[in-house]
Amino acid sequence: MSFVVKMNGSQNNDIHGNFISGNGVHHVSVRTHVNVDPAKLKSLRQRWSVKPSEMSKKTLNPIRAIVDGMKLTPNPEKPMIALSIGDPTVFGNLPTDDTVLQAMKEAIDSHKYNGYAPSVGYQKSREVVADFYSCPEAPLDGKDVILTSGCSQAIELAISVLCNPGDNILVPRPGFSLYKTLAVSMGIQVKHYNLLPEKSWEIDLQHLESLIDDKTACLIVNNPSNPCGSVFSREHLHKILSVASRNCIPILADEIYGDMVFPGCDFQPLAPLSSDVPILSCGGLAKRWLVPGWRMGWILIHDRNDIFGTAIREGLVKLSQRILGPCTVVQGALESILNDTPPQFYQGTISFLKSNSEICYSELSTVPGLNPVMPSGAMYIMVGIEMEHFPDFQNDVEFTERLVTEQSVFCLPATAFEYPNFFRIVVTVPEEMMIEACIRIREFCARHYRPRSQDSHELDQ
Fold first, then answer.
1. Residues 395-427: pLDDT tens digits?
2. Residue limits of the Aminotransferase class I/classII large domain (predicted)?
3. Could you give the domains of the chain?
């Protein structure tokens, strides 16, 4: 088979490297393989040995593993209500502020942010973040900030710089599944410490301390919490710091939901309370500014006693160089986003989340067999299931699966957070959708609830 290539210009090379002068036409012959010998192909494949890496085989997102295995067939007679996705932008009812959008437009129009930035971020942008979060008890400057591609990368870098394969980290249960996903993929053992629902999800400090050994490299504290929506008191945070201090364990503070707390409850960052424990605080724009897709996060390095020293800082810089940092346009807009966003924007978001949480808690707390735990912040509410009253289901996965099938309401089973017999509801949906979802959950529970039999009740006496 042949085709014709027309060559323009005074000097050209053909596809075989042959020199051609002037304008002309060159006939190129291309050999094509129409009939392929299967035996030769098999022999070729057998010579190759391309296998996935051990890291890729160890990487598992528990949420995806559970959800992908569920039989999710919504009731065709009822529109789907997804209360499972921790993305406040899904339904369009929680847009970011116009000031935030304008800052991005101006950064684009300036043409200043189209190239590569340093892997840790522009120095000016790092200083802006430092100024925003600095306080007398925990001062920060630009060198204490590493900009990252979202809070998820901040967490990954923090774990990577503190831990080696064979080490272990302490992770909350229930807790954000990414901690385990990242750690296990790196050959790091995960030890789960318990949170106590009867104490608004405070840490079981005795259990926490019992898990520490000479291989413990890091304690992860998520406050406010995903999936619990809890906010720790100053007193409780001091107790957590005491455990870390006694055992010389640094803390990774996941504070992405910081300041997303309801009126009457104060968020206290961990670092200003620490007198000696070094802390890597991870945050970002995603939740407070309602732009998770912009992928802008950061690590704040709090090390007033120079325990991390230069080695941890240098390690973070080196790790950040594996990719070329977060989006430069968002970095260019950071100063205006952080400093010019009006307080009423934050207040409006928090007011909405509190109202939806109260609606959800009020409706579900009167449903026999369910035990919601009222949150104090973030975007979630955890609901306990008294499984003994729902004999149709073996566990929370089956419960939530059938809830989709019968009522087209999708809540995330808390087995995904290492905490069975609960489910998590995201409260960012429009109010009328929240109310409708609660009505459907009530109907579902009424259909499947079974009171304890008289015989079992007498046995308990």
1. 999 999 999 999 999 999 999 999 999 999 999
2. 79-441
3. 2-34 (no CATH), 58-86+344-458 (3.90.1150.10), 98-340 (3.40.640.10)
